Amino acid sequence: MDFEFTKEQEALREEFDEFFRKEMKHAPKEWAEGGLEAMYHTDEGFAFHDQMKKKLGKKGWLSRAWPKEYGGQDAPLIEQLIFNEVHAFHRAPGVDNFGVGMFAPTLMVGGTEEQKKRLLPPIARGEVQYCQGWSEPDAGSDLANLSTQAVREGDYYIVNGQKTWTTGGHRADHMFLLARTDPNSTRSRGLSIFNVKMDLPGIEVRPILYMDKGHITNDVYFKDVKIHASELVGKENEGWELTRQTMNFERSGVAGFVEGKRTIAELIDYAKAHKRNGKKISEDPVTRQKIAKLFIGLEVGQTLAYRINWEQQKGGLIFAASAASESKVFGSELSQQVANVSTEVLGMYGQLENSKWAPMDGKAATHYQFCVAANIFAGSSEVQRNLIAWVGLGLPRTK
Ligand SMILES: Cc1cc2nc3c(=O)[nH]c(=O)nc-3n(C[C@H](O)[C@H](O)[C@H](O)COP(=O)(O)OP(=O)(O)OC[C@H]3O[C@@H](n4cnc5c(N)ncnc54)[C@H](O)[C@@H]3O)c2cc1C
């Protein structure tokens, strides 16, 4: 198998690389530690993301692989993957994963022509910011148990209920919402998807703060919120099938593996430059074994992501749930191993954030605290393994 990129693709990679190298020099200090906290917690962090998003939108880089009529350039999907790799390597902001990565491809699969023409171009231009309104206090892994109601009254749906864990809900101007439109339905039947403006009367966003007081996630309450019927995405009561596609878009991607490789490169630099017990850390046999093992995992993960990209290129945007789940479970657990090994290699210094003594700008400590959530959000590891067993391997479905 030939994994070489063409000369044109390499030139494109250079162009992306040069752009981010220049732009990241202007990153505010909170961006040095990276992660979702840098993007959502402070006004300065979010403003940097927002202006980068608009720059990327202007260049057409958020939507290269989309059809021209919806704001794209009809480019092959591999070009979007190259962009995603370079963007992740620079730990750069500017990509709204909920809008660009999840809702836009969902619209392309299941939106009406009118919705695609109205909703996709602003996402491509980087003008909007989305959040994901799925989870509820009694519906996480068991999402089909959700109880937020959207009742049709004339030209509107009246929405009542609560969403929880809504990442970036306090920064978003739009949400893609999953709600029950058939009040007599149970489980996955009777659910529908809506495009919701977050400034509608009756929507209230309340923070859920992290252990370190970081503001990333939220509770979102709906009280008699009027959503116009034209915002129903796909068919009424048939939102579950489309939502399963959105899950696949959420669970796949190359970014985490590339970012992991950058962390490994930084760890290697640190290990070469520092001593422990009178010996270079890079000469410690156990540390070497651990770093090499992580690198093998990251190579495997990157190859999984390439496979998904290739499958998508062949078959449009729809692909097997099992491949997306493989990538999700493998990537999130590997990211936890990267965090563990990083703090081991950095020793006591690896626990520092916001300090001149913190190696790697404190990224290791930030990542170590955040990665606990990695095997929960976007579907827990247990749920992914169940899906691989059932959908991928044909084992009986568990209730
Ligand atoms: C940081 C973070 C950000 C998030 N962002 C968003 C967001 O933006 N939008 C959104 O809608 N949601 C978001 N979520 C919610 C996330 O999708 C849910 O937390 C996740 O799906 C798990 O649901 P739960 O928390 O209700 O746990 P539960 O579903 O109650 O699971 C509890 C435990 O039981 C296990 N379990 C459950 N069912 C099974 C089963 N059938 N077999 C084996 N084990 C099982 C799970 O693996 C888990 O270990 C976020 C969560 C976190 C932590």
Structural write-up:
This protein folds into 3 domains: 89 residues, no CATH class; 107 residues, Butyryl-CoA Dehydrogenase, subunit A, domain 2, CATH 2.40.110; 141 residues, Butyryl-CoA Dehydrogenase, subunit A, domain 3. 47% of the residues lie in helices and 15% in strands. The protein contains 12 helices and 10 strands. The strands form 3 sheets. The protein has a 4-stranded mixed beta sheet with strand order 1-4-5-8, covered by helices on one side. It has a 4-stranded antiparallel beta sheet with strand order 2-3-7-6. The protein has a two-stranded antiparallel sheet with strand order 9-10. It starts with 6 loop residues before the first helix and ends in a 7-residue tail after the last helix. It binds flavin-adenine dinucleotide.
Rg estimate, integer Å: 21 Å
- H and E string: HHHHHHEEEEEEEEHHEEHHHH
What is the total tally of β strands?
10
What is the CATH class name of the largest domain?
A: Mainly Alpha
Low-confidence stretches: none
At CATH's second level, what is the architecture of the largest domain? Answer: Up-down Bundle
For the sheet with most strands, the description reads: 4 strands, mixed
Per the CATH scheme, the topology name of the largest domain is: Butyryl-CoA Dehydrogenase, subunit A, domain 3
**Mean of residue pLDDT values:** 94
Helix vs. strand class: alpha+beta
Strand order of the largest sheet: 1-4-5-8
What is the percent of helical residues? 40-55%
Task: Identify the bound ligands.
Answer: flavin-adenine dinucleotide
Number of helices: 12
CATH superfamily of the largest domain: Butyryl-CoA Dehydrogenase, subunit A, domain 3
Percent of residues in beta strands: 5-15%
Name the shape in a single word.
globular
Distance between the termini: 40 Å
Count of structural domains:
3
